[in-house]
Design goal:
The strands form three sheets. A seven-stranded mixed sheet has the order 3-2-1-4-5-6-7, with helices on one face. Strands 12-11-10-13-14-16-15 form a seven-stranded mixed sheet, sandwiched between helices. The chain has eleven helices and 16 strands. Strand 4 and strand 5 form a beta hairpin. The protein is globular. The chain has two domains: about 200 residues, Vaccinia Virus protein VP39 (Rossmann fold, 3-Layer(aba) Sandwich), CATH 3.40.50.150; about 140 residues, OB fold (Dihydrolipoamide Acetyltransferase, E2P) (Beta Barrel). It binds S-adenosyl-L-homocysteine. S-adenosyl-L-homocysteine binds next to helix 7 and strand 11.
Length: about 400
């Protein structure tokens, strides 16, 4: 019999060092079972957990790929991922879950650096040039964005460098230089310059077109995102004329799809200014006039809306891994929309927030649907429908 350790090392030589795919050593069907069990353990007390929706082809699904760069003692340039829990970089040329074209672009940039005498950034000395690369690809449009994250603003022979990379990859539609000279774990810095193209890419999800900037959040698995959003829309069961609140809205995807599917009025709120700008453009690009986006903390915004007279009928909430906060949840309860559709990328914080809602309101959890957005990793996404007990017959 094969030793599972040797087998997984054959599948991925940096399985251990990278730590990104915690479950790569297990068959996909087994991974799904474990995720299902985790959801049942954490969420089972609220209602039955529906069977997790997995991927038909759970490879190369990541539309956003990042690589860190460094030069070893012998002067060889390495690109890859930080070894888990360290500041050392493990070299990666191709990855089973990343978009293959993005991986090819990263290797090509690395190979081009010496001929342009471009150095890599050294975290200890704060000197040097290229720090990270970020590639985003719109799977439906095949538009590709290449972001070169540099430690300094000066980019010697930048035009020729861009020309050389475009010659190899004519499918790249935009190249951006992002400057990050700080000692930080964040990949992207504040300032950026568009070197080629429009500075953003577009993608299509659930029939709507979306603009994606370097810094805006966009779901990384577009195939499963459609499954996720369709489930969320089913749960919202829009009949027309509802007022819908899309909180933690990113570039407005959920609200825009809801508006397209007949919501009467949509309000979106998001903290990241770039994402809000994209959301506004996206609403216009999809010919939607009944939608407004605000840049604010979702909890603060909810508190304000809860005090207003006209209250939303449906609230979508899609917070980051940390989940929501008490301010948000209290305002949600006060606002008391007919339905709440909670989309979560962390079942632990989801369970915590559901517990708080259950104990402090008359909402009941009606549906729990896990979706595997991140095959081979231990992460799992879940869509939950909550509705007020009294409105049972409306569902
Ligand atoms: N619904 C979107 C984005 C979900 S990711 C989609 O499906 O694409 C979570 C989003 O919450 C991110 O865009 C992040 O910038 C935003 N966010 C994080 N903290 C926030 C806060 N306190 N208030 C509002 N938005 C926040």
């Amino acid at each position: 019999m094969n030793n599972p350790k040797t087998t997984v090392n054959k599948i991925c030589p940096v399985f251990k060092k990278c730590g990104g795919c915690q479950m790569l050593n297990l068959p996909y069907s087994e991974q799904l079972k474990i995720k299902q069990k985790k959801c049942e353990r954490l969420l089972g007390k609220f209602n039955k957990v529906l069977p997790i929706i997995g991927m038909e082809n759970p490879y190369h699904y990541r539309n956003k790929v990042q690589a860190a760069f460094y030069t070893d003692r012998r002067g060889k340039i390495i690109s890859g991922v930080y070894q888990s829990g360290t500041h050392r970089i493990a070299g990666v040329d191709s990855c089973l879950i990343e978009d293959s074209k993005a991986d090819e672009i990263i290797v090509a940039v690395r190979k081009l650096l010496p001929s342009f005498k471009l150095t890599t950034y050294n975290e200890d000395s704060g000197k040097g040039f290229l720090r990270h690369i970020l590639v985003k690809r719109g799977f439906a449009t095949n538009q590709i964005m290449l972001v070169l994250v540099t430690g300094t603003p000066v980019f010697p022979s930048k035009n020729n460098f861009v020309k050389a990379i475009l010659k190899q990859f004519p499918e790249i539609t935009t190249v951006v230089q992002n400057i990050n000279g700080y000692r930080t774990n964040l990949v992207l810095g504040e300032n950026q310059k568009v070197l080629y193209g429009r500075g953003y890419i577009e993608d299509i999800l659930c029939g709507c077109r979306f603009r994606i900037s370097p810094k805006s959040f966009y779901q990384i698995n577009p195939v499963q995102t459609e499954v996720l959003y369709n489930t969320a829309m089913d749960y919202a069961d829009l009949r027309g004329n509802e007022t819908v609140l899309d909180t933690y809205c990113g570039i407005g995807t959920i609200g825009i799809i809801a508006a397209k599917r007949g919501a009467g009025r949509v309000i979106g709120v998001e903290l990241n200014g770039d994402a809000v700008r994209d959301a506004k453009v996206n609403a216009a690009a999809n010919n939607l006039k009944n939608i407004r986006f605000y840049k604010a903390d979702a909890g603060e915004f909810m508190a304000e809306v809860a005090d207003e007279e006209s209250k939303p009928d449906i609230v979508f909430m899609d917070p980051p891994r940390a989940g929501s906060d008490i301010k948000f949840l209290d305002s949600l309860i006060k606002m008391s929309p007919q339905k709440v559709v909670y989309i979560s990328c962390n079942p632990e914080t989801l369970a915590r927030d559901l517990e708080y809602i259950a104990q402090n309101s008359e909402y009941v959890v009606k549906k729990i649907q896990p979706v595997d957005m991140f095959p081979h990793t231990s992460h799992v996404e879940t869509v939950v429908l909550l509705s007020r007990e009294k409105t049972d017959n409306n569902i």
